[in-house]
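ZP: hey, is the S-adenosylmethionine complex queued? I don't see it on the tracker
AM: it wasn't, my bad. submitting now with these inputs:
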Amino acid sequence: MAPSEQDIEEEQRHFAQVIVTFRSYAQYALSANNKRRKDIYRLPRADVELIRGIKYREKLECVDRAILENAHFLLKVVEDADMFGHETDYLDVGGDEGNGKRSQNEQDQVKSYQRDHADVQNHSHISPHSHSHSRSHGIGHDHDNRHNSQSHPRGYRPSEGDMDKLRSSLKQLVRDWSEEGKVERDVCYEPMKQALLEFFKDVKQEDRRNIRVLVPGAGLCRLAFDVAQLGFACQGNEFSHYMLLISYFMLNQTTEINEHRIYPYIHSFSNASKKSDILRPVLVPDVLPSSIPSGTPFSLVAGDFEEVYSGESGPEEPQHGLWDAILTCFFIDTAKNIVNYLRMIHDKLAPGGVWINLGPLLWHWENNNTGDMSIELDLEEVKELAKIVGFEILHEKTIDTTYTNNAKGLLNYTYHAAFWIATKVKEDKDKQGGKDDHRTL
Ligand SMILES: C[S@@+](CC[C@H](N)C(=O)[O-])C[C@H]1O[C@@H](n2cnc3c(N)ncnc32)[C@H](O)[C@@H]1O
């Protein structure tokens, strides 16, 4: 089903708001840091002196500078946003209302920053290395502003939620594209890659390009990239514009290892043991994005997994049985309806194809306030359902892993993530009924 005019308009608006969020980062983050500075002066005078003595203000100055470096990087990311097929030229950052809330000092910092980095706004031609598909009209947990028809990008003021997604994207860059993230990647992505290699061990390396691997919810695309680097034909799928913009930039507009420096940990001072926990820079990428074996198909498709791969765009369901492997990493719990995710994964796999999963069950839509459904099963229920849908679980284990934590901080969450390798053993259509058949599931 083709997207309606209204869908397209809503998509344009959402994309524009994301671009405004990137462009507003400096003023928003500087303002938050300035609040810390102002709070010092709410202390009794003697305490202000004490705080001065331990050089807390100097730390805030360093954070200001780090914010400006992050902003420089983020502006580069959206410099060529036009090539995503949406108009962005008419966008304003913040608007008068936003300016009114900023101190003169912050406004001066932002202005001088914008002057110094004026070149970043110029649009230049790039030649994409991955394919971007613009059917991204899905609604998801990073799309809270989509239904706010009042919010027009002109003068749009990003919400705390928008900024939170942008700040999380910076931490996601550490996970996927930095040397520091290797520890976490080795725990999460290595077992998945090894399982894939083992499953297709009889396929010669030069023939791997004939094996099609799909990675839905690809995030910043490192797992998909690694799979392509092994020589498999790989497609990532992602619906968050934050993720798409950054991964597109990393994959297509980065030419050197450690080309960019970001400061992902400056936005929270909680649970830091020392200044460097917050202020340490992280360099990205740790690998050359162009290092995929030539001739290996590698693509990134934008849009909601359930919409893009449902086959609703054509009468013949072209995706049915198309994929030899589907890799889901920290993804299945993004489902509103896990039954449909499992059915989709099963339906898109070729008979005998492999589904490799790793992740917790942090149901993303639990307690949502948007009225969306959310089916929140426990692990046993998910696995039971997978078997009913037509999978045989060949191997399973628990993998303890972090997810985008500040590794140097005083707090680290560990997920006891479920890992499994499953194969498609029966056709869902014949044996389980279609999408609307509620008798079997
Ligand atoms: C927890 S992150 C995991 C990202 C990546 N797989 C990793 O391990 O770092 C889940 C990702 O799935 C994406 N996502 C959630 N629902 C989606 C959907 N319906 N279609 C496509 N992507 C989706 C989110 O935007 C997010 O990037």
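AM: back. Residues 5-432 form a domain with the Rossmann fold fold (CATH 3.40.50.150).
ZP: great, adding it to the tracker
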